[in-house]
Design goal:
Chain B: This is Amidase. The complex is a heterodimer of chains A (67) and B (468). Helices cover 60% and strands 0% of the residues of chain A. By secondary structure, chain A is an all-alpha fold. In chain A, helix 1 packs across helix 2. Classes of the chains: A mainly alpha (67), B alpha/beta (468).
Chain lengths: 67, 468
């Protein structure tokens, strides 16, 4: 679990570093890594929450305009 | 009565004095401007004094009242607005150094409605930069400096509505507008010992307010009492075609009597084991007061991943809302080092993770609505600790008491809440108690808070700084 989590964190970090090359020093990369880890941990907890195909997101796509 | 004594009066008292011509809108505006300059700046509570506009609005109010034109209880009353809300003619900085010169051509709807109600904007008040959306971890996260607590100047005011809470607590303005996405009205209201009302999602138009999260942002008043909050909400609430999320029905303050209501309150004690002893003692004492006019029953929140859901929703929406700002490099010059990278981590959240969070959110919202249905409100401490020292990181000071499940759950569900002061804790700092109500039912929350405040005087306490 921890290894998989580390892999996902590093993959996401690599995406960021590729998009913003040269932006971050070592301290900032460490901070980014910690923030991404929190998000990955949260997402993994949510993936364990049971949902069915019928469970819609909590917002509605509306066709037309509201006046 | 001295001018400074006017600073400590309630909205209704000021309204009476104005109509008796014992004071005037110009006198009140000048008084607020002086106090904001003299005391507010010591608290890092002020971003911009709007003196020219204030005096224009005050003179107009004065002329109208003299001519018998009465716009209601806020006519001629000064107020401040969190600097996330646009006000024509003045910068709207969002608390962020790179946006010090940002201007918008028209007022936010909430400010325009207060102008229609005759209220007088005297200041744009401090906020945590970008309303805390970059993940700040300590108080020094705004170009105006850390928000300072009027009760203890070595303590934080709470965030992200730092200026509104401190300014109301020190009697610099009778009320202020704040915003909440996840705790930003309830927490600073509790930390500063004022009354803060977070309306139902969609009750107040967000047009002209900075977006942090489209599905979580709310605008609401911080004031000295529930009664004052009700007067302000009545002025700013209601549908707005420029905010498609606004609730179509208008809102007006319909007082609910204790006898008619027969209040039934669910008491939530989750997390009290992490609370500071004074917070627990003050909560228990407040429950004894509530039991004089309400039936109290223990209630428990289902064990759900509220914190994780709100973190993913908020972070993903903030990353999208600020994507251009982040990509421009502007956030690299924010005040808090952690904020300089904060908007970037959110860019990595996969769309399916965001959608999963929103799918779970629907279940949590429906579950919470069922839980609340038999009750008029859930009551719990507003925060489990008092305001942290200015020098502490939040996690270091509060540990597991930093956030409560109820805060995440009720914000996710868009439910209204009101925080009222209920005593004092360590270092002389206020504690607070919150009522969380059913969606759309601010009136019952206000009735509960009014009944509590009719039996207690915690909301009348003022820090010595307010008399300096």
């Amino acid at each position: 679990m921890s290894d998989e989590l580390d892999v996902e964190v590093e993959q996401r970090l690599a995406l960021v570093l590729a998009r913003f090359p040269g932006w971050f020093d070592e301290d900032e990369q460490a901070r980014l890594r910690a923030q991404i880890r929190e998000l990955v941990e949260a997402s993994r907890k949510l993936r364990a929450f049971p949902l069915t195909n019928a469970d819609e997101p909590d917002f509605l796509f509306q066709v037309g305009t509201r006046q | 009565m001295t001018q400074d004594e006017l600073a400590h009066r309630s909205l209704r008292e000021l309204a009476v004095l104005l109509r008796r011509r014992e004071t005037s809108p110009v006198e009140l505006a000048e008084l607020a401007l002086r106090r904001l300059e003299r005391i507010g700046k010591r608290l890092n509570a002020v971003v911009t004094l709007t003196a020219e506009r204030a005096l224009d609005e005050a003179r107009r109010a004065e002329a109208e009242l003299a001519a018998g034109i009465d716009r209601g209880p806020l006519h001629g009353i000064p107020y401040g607005a969190k600097d996330l809300l646009a006000a024509a003619g003045y910068p709207t900085t969002w608390g962020a150094a790179p946006l010090r010169q940002q201007h918008f051509p028209e007022d936010a709807t909430a400010i325009a409605r207060l102008r229609e109600a005759g209220a007088v904007l005297v200041a744009k008040l401090a906020t945590v930069e970008l309303a805390g959306g970059m993940g700040y971890e300590q108080p020094n996260a705004s170009f105006t400096g850390p928000g300072i607590n009027p009760w203890n100047m070595d303590a934080w005011s709470g965030g992200s509505s730092t200026g509104p809470a401190a300014a109301v607590a020190a009697d610099l303005v009778p009320f202020a507008l704040g915003t909440e996405t996840w705790g930003s009205i309830i927490v600073p209201a509790s930390y500063c010992g004022v009354t803060g009302l977070r309306p139902t999602y969609g009750r107040v138009s967000r047009f002209g307010a900075m977006t942090l999260s489209w599905t979580l942002d709310k605008i609401g008043p911080l004031a000295r009492s529930a009664d004052d909050c009700a007067l302000v909400l009545a002025a700013v609430a209601g549908p707005d075609p420029r905010d498609p999320a606004t609730i179509p029905q208008p809102w007006s303050d319909a007082p609910v009597s204790e006898q008619k209501q027969g209040f039934r309150i669910g008491v939530l004690e989750t997390g009290l084991e992490f609370a500071q002893p004074e917070v627990v003692a003050n909560f228990r004492a407040a429950l004894a007061v509530l039991s004089e006019f309400a039936t109290l029953e223990p209630i428990a929140l289902p064990d759900r991943p509220y914190g994780e859901v709100i973190r993913i929703v908020l972070t993903a929406e903030a990353a999208s809302a600020f994507e251009e700002l982040v990509a421009s490099g502007a956030t690299r010059t924010l005040t808090a080092p952690e904020d300089r990278v904060g908007g970037i981590a959110g860019l990595t959240i996969p769309a399916v993770d965001y959608l999963r969070a929103q799918r779970i959110r629907r279940q949590l919202r429906e579950e919470l609505a069922s839980l609340l249905a038999p009750y008029d409100a859930i009551v719990a401490p507003s925060t489990l600790v008092v305001a942290s020292p200015l020098t502490s990181r939040f996690d270091e000071y509060a540990g597991p008491a930093r956030r409560t499940p109820l805060s995440a759950a009720s914000n996710l569900a868009g439910l209204p809440a009101i925080s009222v002061p209920n005593g004092f804790g360590e270092r002389g700092l206020p504690t607070g108690m919150q009522f969380v109500g059913r969606a759309g039912d601010e009136s019952t929350l206000l009735a509960l808070a009014r009944s509590y405040q009719a039996r207690t005087d915690w909301h009348r306490h003022r820090p010595p700084l307010a008399f300096s």
